[in-house]
Amino acid sequence: MRKLFFVFLVLVFVPLNSCDDGDIIDFELDFENTFQVCSGETSTGQSTLVFYKTKNDPSESISVQVNGLNLEDIFEVDENGEYENTTSISSSAPLNYRTYSNTTLPDNLFCNVVPNSEVNIKNDDVSTSGQVIITTVLVEDDNDDITADLEDRNGNGDLTDDDTDGDGLPNYIDADDDGDNILTKDEDPDPNGDGDLSDALDTDGDGTPDYLDADDDGDGIDTRDEENDSQDQNPANDITISEFGPDYLNKDVANLGAPAAVAYRDHTITETYTVTLNVTNFDLTLISLDIYDFGTLDDSSTSTTRTETPDFP
Question: Where is there biased composition of kind Acidic residues (predicted)?
């Protein structure tokens, strides 16, 4: 693992005044509201993270080092999809505010194994006191074109107890809410995209929209069992009469002898982690703050997917 030679954290645009022998110094930390991270090891082999942000014109950086954590740790959320860790700023894990004589700063300034020889530090202001608070919130989504709040079928504010097809996946992370092996987004739950599901497609006119209807055409055969050509967990490609489309939408095609479905299709769930940091009670030469908003982590690791295949009844 790489050894990290720099340390620190922070964010936000905060204008501040500081006094020096009676003079007023106008001081400003003017950074974007996102930060980046590098992972590695300390000189003693301990896992460490460096959260940082940089800017040009003028060239500045602010960073904080957190020892004893790796990147995977901050994504280990609890059953509520949350993670929080508070750690102390110290001489071995300081906060640094730096200015540079360079016009622009190189990419990955804090992630290089060997410090960039072209970087010239003009000032390095260090705080060895304070705390860093890391907070992670996980939001999962099934990408079915229905917002999570509209998947709260019983209206009790708890998304986890709404499972229309009983497959173990709550509707808000179930890409196929009714378990008919047709993706919810392909059953026109919101035809005009206005967020009002009252006009959702209801092929058989039974009052239950297709995306919640196990038998879309009302022919007495469950949609997932209308696989007459191939059992591939996709009734959409089983077409007996081409001009009328798939059999599961054609009530005149009810192949009672067709084999029943034996499995659900795979479900892809998007996971988005929002990682934010706050620094509290730190002291730099020009500034001391009770709390400082560091912003939100901008890293590809904050967005991922997982695949679930529910157990078939």
Answer: 187-230
